[in-house]
Amino acid sequence: MSEDRDEAADATPSALETDRELVGIVAVADNGVIGRDGDMPWHIPDDLQHFKEATMDHPVVMGRVTYEGILETLGEPLPGRTTVVVTSRDLETPDNAVIANGLEEAVDRADTAARECHDDADRIFIAGGATVYEGFLPALDRLVVTEVHDEPDGDTFFPGWERASWTEASRDERDGFAFVEYVRER
Ligand SMILES: NC(=O)c1ccc[n+]([C@@H]2O[C@H](COP(=O)([O-])OP(=O)(O)OC[C@H]3O[C@@H](n4cnc5c(N)ncnc54)[C@H](OP(=O)(O)O)[C@@H]3O)[C@@H](O)[C@H]2O)c1
């Protein structure tokens, strides 16, 4: 994960309040790339499975562009989860997706979904893309990162983050990538 981009976003105190753990989940290449042409620049089935297992039966917050990419691929929002779509638009959504017109509203909607649809799940996942990661970064408690050991071309990057504020809690090296968890120092 690249550490040399602007780290200001990670330094701002957060107004995003919830009793649940706010968990960023991302796959990021060594050069910071997370996306290209509205999609991910790699296909790693183990990572898709890892994402599914981590997020199943939880609220998952994402930006409108990422949401539309999932609709294009799956034909529906992520099954078994409530998708909270951050957008300024008035989108129609199926039953397991809701829209939020800003980040605070997204946390409120995710809290409601956790309580009413997911057995009071204790985590809310923040699943990108770049604009949504950037907005939530100061509020995240944990980062679940798939570090992709490659430097692909891309047009979307994970925002800079202040590594000194985070502790590596676990690392599972695989062939060409690693599953890593970082916990914010409080
Ligand atoms: N590698 C990974 O783990 C990963 C994860 C997720 C996404 N991605 C990639 O990231 C790329 C998409 O990222 P992106 O940054 O371009 O788009 P995005 O964050 O998915 O969506 C951006 C949109 O979200 C809405 N939005 C964001 N912040 C908002 C706010 N505070 N208030 C209201 N609306 C807000 C706006 O929608 P409106 O325009 O409708 O107002 C904005 O245009 C794709 O390539 C995708 O594949 C990669």
Task: Quote the average pLDDT.
Answer: 93
- Whole-number radius of gyration? 15 Å
Silhouette: globular
Largest sheet: 8 strands, mixed
Query: CATH superfamily, please?
Result: Dihydrofolate Reductase, subunit A
Through-space gap between termini: 21 Å
The structural class is alpha/beta
Q: What's the architecture, going by CATH?
A: 3-Layer(aba) Sandwich
The helix fraction, in percent, is 10-25%
Segments where pLDDT lies below 50 for 5+ residues? 2-13
Overall number of structural domains: 1
Number of strands: 10
Question: What topology emerges from the helices and strands here?
Answer:
Blueprint lengths: L20 E9 L3 E3 L9 H11 L3 E5 H11 L7 E5 L10 E4 L2 H15 L5 E4 L3 H7 L5 E7 L7 E2 L8 E8 L3 E8 L2
Parallel strand pairs: 1-6, 1-7, 3-4, 3-6, 4-5
Antiparallel strand pairs: 2-8, 7-10, 9-10
The chain binds NADP nicotinamide-adenine-dinucleotide phosphate.
Organism: Natrinema altunense (strain JCM 12890 / CGMCC 1.3731 / AJ2)
Protein name: dihydrofolate reductase
Pfam families: DHFR_1
